Amino acid sequence: MKKFPIALQLYSVRDDLAADFDGTLAAVKAMGYDGVEFAGLYGHSAAEVKALCEKHNLTPISAHVPYLEMMGDPDGVLAAYAQIGCRFVAIPYLNEDLRPGQPKFAEVIENAKMLGAVAKKHGMTLLYHNHDFEFQKIDGEYALDMLYREVPADRLETELDTCWVNVGGEDPVKYVRKYAGRAPVLHLKDFAGQKGGKMYALIGIDDGAQSEAAAGAFEFRPVGKGLQNFPAILAAAEESGVEWVVVEQDSPSMGLRPLECAKCSIDYLKSL
After folding, report:
1. What span, in angstroms and rounded, lies between the C-alpha atoms of 48 and 55?
2. What is the pTM of this model?
3. Would you list the DSSP string of 81-137?
């Protein structure tokens, strides 16, 4: 099996980053990660972040940048991530009023075309990172598929989140293959338990759902410690032209701290 370069989505260790940005990057590198995907710069300038990545020999492969932040200043925001050296920038999440089934989802599709063009101007590729709500059907078609059908591949590529594809009711292996040639970056995320309860509370969002009993409740897990079939996912990734895999764990579990979860994930991947 191909040995993919492995990045860590830094949202996974956000509290550590807030306390010690430099030290956390050093710890991530020491675990064996090849790169990082940002989710905020924690008050640092693009030049400072670029220098820290160079210091720790970490590739700044990508960044999750809030949709509304990009829309507020497309050229300025995307230029900053290009300065860091990111090859990719992703729309990471849609607020409820922007999601499929809401009137503004049509605006998101049109604006993705524009943001993709601006990213391309700065030498980057725009990605879309899904959750489960894109697996709502509109006229018989998943909203996620509609997005990728409506926005040309030269403006938008995929960053499939394998956990949320599964939670959305589809097979991650099938979806990776479905977007072969259009999926340069793949999120590896594991989970246990059942869909429902306060899934989104685990990523810092109050979705108003009632929490479930502890037995069988949904939780994110280090890669290899949950329900996902990662050997099959990685085989599909190799066949489909994936360039980078990114570990993400939205909240820690199993009594481990976030950095310990990140270490557990990469140790598993390197053992395959």
Report:
1. 10
2. 0.93
3. HHHHT-SEEEE----GGGSTTSTTHHHHHHHHHHHHHHHHHTT-EEEEE--SGGG-E
**Count of CA atoms in the C-beta half-sphere (13 A) of 162:** 32
| Residue 213 exposed, middle or buried by CB count within 10 Å (0-12, 13-18, 19+) | exposed
**Cα–Cα distance, 8 to 153 (Å, whole number):** 25
CA distance 245 to 112: 23
Give residue 193's pLDDT: 87
Measured distance CA(121)–CA(137) in Å, rounded: 33
Spatial CA neighbour of 36 closest among 86, 94, 100: 86
Q: What is the pLDDT of residues 103-148, one digit of tens each?
A: 999 999 999 999 999 999 999 999 999 999 999 999 999 999 999 9
Return the domain boundaries, the chain: 6-271
Provide the sign of the torsion angle of the four alpha carbons 33, 6, 25, 46, taken in this order: positive
Distance, CA of 33 to chain centre? 16
CATH number for the region 6-271 comes to 3.20.20.150
Q: How far apart are CA 113 and CA 240, in angstroms?
A: 24
Please provide residue 55's backbone torsions phi and psi, each rounded to the nearest 5 degrees.
-55, -40
